[in-house]
Amino acid sequence: MLKFHNSLSNKLEEFIPVEDKKVKMYVCGPTVYDKAHLGHARCYITWDVLYRYLKFLGYNTTYCRNVTDVDDKILKKADMQGVSPEDITKEFYASFENSMKGLNCLKPDVEPRATKTIGEMIAMVKKLIDNGFAYPVDGDVYFEVEKYKKYGQLSKQPIDDLMAGARVDTDEKKKSPLDFALWKKDEKHGYKSPWGLGRPGWHIECSAMSKKFLGDSIDIHAGGADLTFPHHENELAQSECANGCKFVNYWLHNGFVTINKEKMSKSLNNFLTIDDLLKKYDSNAIRFFILTNHYRMPVEFNDEALNSAAAGAKRLIGAACGYNKTDEVDEESVNAFKLAMDDDLNTSKALAVLFAVADKVKKASDEKEARLYASTLITLGEVLGFDFSLAKKEVCESELREMILPLYKTFEIDENICANEAIEKIISIRKAARDNKDWAKSDLIRDEFDKCGILLKDSKEGTTWQVK
RNA sequence: GGCGGCAUAGCCAAGUGGUAAGGCAGGAGCCUGCAAAGCUUUCACCCCCAGUUCGAAUCUGGGUGCCGCCUCCA
After folding, report:
1. Region A3-258: CATH code
2. Integer angstrom CA distances of residue A402 from A397, A419, A425, A448
3. pLDDT of A420-433, one tens digit each?
């Protein structure tokens, strides 16, 4: 039985979708004004795994992840650099997409852009005014928190406490300091609206995009724990007051990545970008690192942890090397995997199941059995988003040739011979040396390969090689 | 101040009442000319104190330490 920890009830709940076998999930996407970092990686890997798992279970899943491309930070950056907001969002959306691809995250079914959903946002704000939950002032429109008695239900913040703790707001236009902007006056970058030129508040963007692409009531709304308040609290208030029905059944929140025990974030300027990490580690290593922890727990980043994850991932993925995915899987392993994942996505336990399967591949009594377990390993590993093609680390001819170019000269190999053959040829030269017990020469050749990024593996059956 | 979370081996981490999954590193061994890779094997009584119980890492109370949210943030 699939269960999730619902932030709304703060309890583990059985997952029952609104429509049988159909799931609508929404994840708060990036504000595209800067490069994505490891914290984002954690969030999007976590929900990518949820998406993959729901599909694996046979749910017809619609995954919607927005792109926030109207925002103060974007405008500020654009103004500072003297370029248009579109220049900024175009650059960083491309960068984000690239990072997601690098992490082997599946593309969501829908990736709406805030700028393309302005009409729906205006309609929603209008509706909130009509329903008596919002009021316009001087080109702005605010949501009146007092009017919605359940406000604070998600973040578990009693309204009175919020009120008491609220900062003294210099904005005299608001009726209460807790009221938040649905629409902000903006004569420079604004859009036409019934209240004059302006732009939407951040919260209404998600409410409107979720409504437009998934409907008034959805199954899952997920995001980083820092979005719980005020973002999700406000979305919840707006959507329920505008639509008059339950907005989200399951609210899921992932924990943070910390570095030196502090939350990794742009404002603390202690972040590592996904791009930079991918230069040093492959996507499997990063995923393994993220997935060894339960998604709601904090993850402390350090190089040792990531190196250890890289070693683990390499061994796990490597166990399926040389095998393919088939339709046949070991049901017992699949059930153990499901048992782990059903329990609020216990990926740590799921990884232990994968290691057990990897072990069975090695200990299989015959080829057929090995194939079955390897196929199981790949099937389940892919549910966690591992990329098994990385096990072989295949490089194309031209790339390989480029790598071993120095060896052609050293060993006087004919330039017309392809890289694979050239390698085999050099290995046979080495074998001859080894047969003659010329260990110095043998070791020299091994070192030459090593310098070119090629690892030689000696065994009883002979010498094989692989790209490091 | 309000709200929420965490504390398990050298490191990462699962486990929420029945005697500690898994990964990394380390040790030992196999293999090897030597290595590397691979394989086999080994490695903890769970922050402290008190309580409940036949039995607690797991429940209750009290400490101590750490983190997050309450402002933009995944």
Report:
1. 3.40.50.620
2. 8, 9, 17, 14
3. 888 988 999 999 99
